[in-house]
Amino acid sequence: MAVILKTPEEIEAMKEAGRLSAEVLREVGARCVPGVSTLELDQFAEDYIRSRGGIPTFKGYGGFPGSICASINEQIVHGIPSSTVKLKSGDIISIDVGATVDGWAGDNAWTFAVGRIGHQVKKLLEITEKSMWMAIAAARPGNRLGDIGHAVQAVAKSGGFGVVRDYTGHGIGRDMHESPQVPNYGLKHTGMKLQVGMVLAIEPMLTMGTHKTHVMRDGWLVVTQDGKPAAHFEKTVAITEDGPVLVSTEPGRDRPL
Ligand code: MG
After folding, report:
1. What is the CA(202)–ligand 1 centre distance, in A?
2. Cα 200 to middle of ligand 1, angstroms
3. Residues with Cβ < 8 Å from 132, sequence gap 6 or more?
4. How far is the CA of 164 from the centre of ligand 1 (A)?
5. What pLDDT, on a 0 to 100 scale, did the predictor assign at position 255?
6. Protein residues near ligand 1, an ion, with CB under 5 A
7. 31-42, pLDDT tens digit by residue?
8. Distance in Å, CA 77 to ligand 1 centroid
9. Which of 37, 136, 142, 174 is deepest in the core (most CB within 10 A)?
10. Is the pLDDT of residue 257 over 50?
11. The pTM is what?
């Protein structure tokens, strides 16, 4: 599949989807408190998106039933919201959510702490977030896809954490998943050249133990094979002449570093 480059005007239009995606992510995150079910979070997100003129990008995507993916502790990605899954203090939860606005897809994710979390889990969150920012900083013209993956890997290694290889970031536009795949591992100066007009969802997934994954019987939920925690952060980024510009963000915050 060919990479679909976006014009500056199209990138501006994508920022509307990105802004709503970032807002709803922030608001869902504020509701990740002990006792709340992941289905309640999902319904909040769907209402929030629809009441502001968007469409939940994930709902129905490939048959996915929710508007958010809610993945707790050893769950890496693609958790289906449920009324029987309730948050408790000490959990971490990856919320992945997107809003489609004017036909443009949005996509972003953040891992939130519920109540008080352990020291090592806190470090996992900090390092995973840092790996995302370093990867975003590498998303500039002249660099290659391998530079993005290498940035994630280098930060993960500094914290002693694993990097999930079975799932990747991706191009994004009118479709949520476009070319290219954006692996969270790689070698510097290798892979596809990054070009002005590429819009990428950069989403490292780091693990406290093995990076190996397992898909549960519902066909969606991905967990770590050893049951140890995983964290996941994601932002949509446009590659411009001036470097990376955040697309899934709120106004005034479109420069990463
Ligand atoms: Mg994504």
Report:
1. 7
2. 9
3. 152, 202, 203, 204, 233, 234, 235
4. 14
5. 53
6. 107, 201
7. 999 999 999 999
8. 10
9. 136
10. no
11. 0.96
Cα 177 to averaged position of ligand 1 atoms, centre (Å): 7
Run of H or E residues at 23: helix 8-30
Decide if pLDDT at 131 tops 50.
yes
Helix or strand run (H / E) with residue 97: strand 92-97
pLDDT of 256: 47
d(CA 99, CA 8): 20
Q: Can you tell me the distance from the alpha carbon of 193 to that of 26, in angstroms, rounded to the nearest whole number?
A: 32
User: Can you tell me the distance from the alpha carbon of 24 to that of 70, in angstroms, rounded to the nearest whole number?
Assistant: 14
Backbone angles phi, psi at 134, to 5 degrees: -70, -35
Looking at this protein, which amino acid is placed at residue 166?
D
CATH class of the region 8-246:
alpha beta
Q: How far is the CA of 186 from the centre of ligand 1 (A)?
A: 18
